[in-house]
Design goal:
9 helices, 28% strand, globular, 229 residues
């Protein structure tokens, strides 16, 4: 507490004014934390380890091997949005690559799936045909864009599961081992739906998919605290 008070005393009048304005702005934005803003003003914007790195102690950005990502969707989703699997995969990989993670070309994976009768196949099968050190399987169980209680409003909801397999290549050959699993659940926008009169459906679908790609990619790359807002 004494250290905190000494820190406050060293702040100039101008800094206090800026701090007051920041608090007013932050408290007016739903979902943002005053403490996050205070922390950023005092200590900068820290780098947050990804959930994958925290749980496995593996920093994918420092691996020599590539990461393969595939997304699956149920028939109810793929029939309405047949390109979602590829577009979401590409969006996730683009974000991973931007953060220093080596990736397997998604076009080659898409061709492999097409040649496999549009079936993703098993991680073991993918390990045999691709030079990848890790395989990420994202199962999107739901992807809706209509608000549940307001059919004339947009509000995206999605949830599903993520499993990561590490490819082991030794004298016994290539095999896979599950090293990470988790769930995801997201709502966009988190509070108030958007009127369908103000935006075309395809535009909202693209924004929601980008939001979901951000959330899923962030499980695997480190990010700044400010990226959350």
């Amino acid at each position: 507490m004494d250290a905190w008070l000494q820190k406050i005393r060293r702040i100039s009048t101008h800094q206090l004014s800026v701090l007051f304005v920041a608090i007013v702005v932050v408290t007016s934005v739903s979902g943002c934390s005053v403490f996050v803003m205070l922390g950023k003003m005092f200590y900068g914007d820290p780098l947050i380890p990804s959930e994958f790195r925290s749980r496995t102690r593996i920093n994918l950005a420092k691996q020599d091997t590539s990461l393969l990502v595939v997304c699956t969707t149920p028939e109810s989703v793929s029939s309405e949005l047949p390109a979602l699997q590829f577009d979401l995969t590409e969006g996730i990989l683009r974000r991973m690559k931007r953060n220093g993670i080596k990736i397997v070309n998604p076009d080659k994976v898409a061709d492999w799936v097409d040649n496999n009768g549009s079936q993703v196949g098993t991680p073991r099968e993918m390990a045999q045909d691709f030079d990848a050190g890790f395989i990420v399987v994202i199962d999107v169980e739901r992807f809706d864009t209509t608000a549940e209680k307001s059919p004339h409003m947009y509000q995206g909801k999605s949830f599903g599961n993520v499993v990561v397999y590490q490819v082991i290549d030794d004298e016994l050959g290539k095999r896979v081992q599950s090293i990470y699993s988790g769930e995801f659940r997201t709502t966009y926008p988190p509070m108030n739906p958007i009127s369908q009169e103000s935006m075309e459906r395809r535009v909202f679908q693209k924004r929601f998919m980008d939001h979901l790609a951000d959330q899923l990619a962030r499980q695997f790359h480190d990010y700044r605290l400010g990226d959350e807002f």
